[in-house]
Structure prediction request, 472 residues.
Amino acid sequence: MLTTKWTLSADRCFSPNPSQRSLARQLYQTVKDLPLVCPHGHVAPGLLSDPTADLGTPAELLIIPDHYVFRMLYSQGIKLEDLGIPTVDGFPTESDHRKIWQIFANNFYLFRGTPTGVWLADELVNLFGVTEKLNGENAQRIYDYLVAQFAKPEFRPRRLFNRFNIETLCTTDAPWDTLAEHQALHHEGYTNILPTFRPDGVVNVAAANWKENIEKLAVVSGVDITNYVSYIQALEARRAFFKELGATSTDQAAQSAFTGRLSEREADLIFTNALKGNINEVAINRFIGHMFMEMARMSVEDGLVMQVHIGSYRNHNQSLYERFGPDKGADMPLQTEWTRNLKPLLDEFGNDPRLTLILFGLDETNYSRELAPLAGHYPAVLLGPPWWFHDSVNGMVRYLDQVMETAGLYNTAGFNDDTRAFASIPARHDVWRRVTSDWLAGLVLKGLVDEEDALEMAQDCAYRLVKKAYKL
Prediction:
């Protein structure tokens, strides 16, 4: 039985106010086809480095790797085992992708009104040409249709990369990564796919496999890491290598925005104790705070933009983490304090024109109280776009309303999609372009900016700010 033809509103994300909606449409038309600049995300470079790579099955593309999707299903009592999510110990989980797809389709209604639902609808309708709204009855028919679509040459990842009009795509890579896939891409002319230096696995001395990661860092850097000094030398060597392959930024995450410099002797004591497995929470936090200082110092010296993501309690569901590992939808936002915690770093580097520090947070109560004033004062500081739980229509509106008056648009860093789901990239950028167009239309109607300024600001939001912030 066919359902009603599935169409998406041309005015989605726009105000119901006729005057604002009309102006939003005009602004959106000027930016909707601009190239996509993707300076931060988690698309695996291997998807694009292998010219024979395909999208896999519909379950492999849209469900199994996407914690936004299976997080919602898990919240309704659906087991990750039944969704084919790999286990840490290799214990078999559901391998029939049609069964996984059927579960997804039976529960597709759960995504109504969510950003994930908006992205999925855009992908299925506008990218893959699905004409029926997904449900349990048509699940297998749509699965067969998608399999046929995925088999076409125009749906190979590289062809989609060009179709998406991606000007630059940055991946996220560990310091011990050889970047062989990036080298292969550059050899073939894909010099617009760039690595990003993500040191968390060797900076957070409490991280799983930290000592093994240090050993891998030593091998790939050619530095025998026996103490803090040699550790810093290895990190600097890897940053230089990343930069040779086009990297323009680093990315560092922590629960707290705490920063503070240790003496070399103190840092060495914590580091060497950690190598021996002798570490406590106080030392862990002090070392991470010190390494924020060191990464800022390195960015001043080598010019790499410094991204900081703060406020996520990782792997909150302990039993799920033990069975399935990290990044399984169980990360939770934390209350965050920025002003006092960042002061040591900003005292040392906040006025240095050589540093670009882009801040991302999950505690929205900080937008107008701390983040906007910090970005609106310190030359080194920019605000990243709404992140993770707030990468949504309402999240973007709250961000724009609470940040822009104090920080100013030009102390923000534009948009990034921050996704593992390659096929969702255009949909995520489209939501941002629609929301900012509508917000700017509201400013015009309130008499706060004129239409000429709004047109310029729409271009800035969609394209120019991100290129400037990330030196692309």
About this structure: Residues 55-155 form a domain with the uronate isomerase, domain 2, chain A fold (CATH 1.10.2020.10). The CA atoms of residues 433 and 462 lie 6 Å apart. DSSP finds 20 helices and nine strands in the chain. The chain has two domains: 18-54+156-469, 55-155.
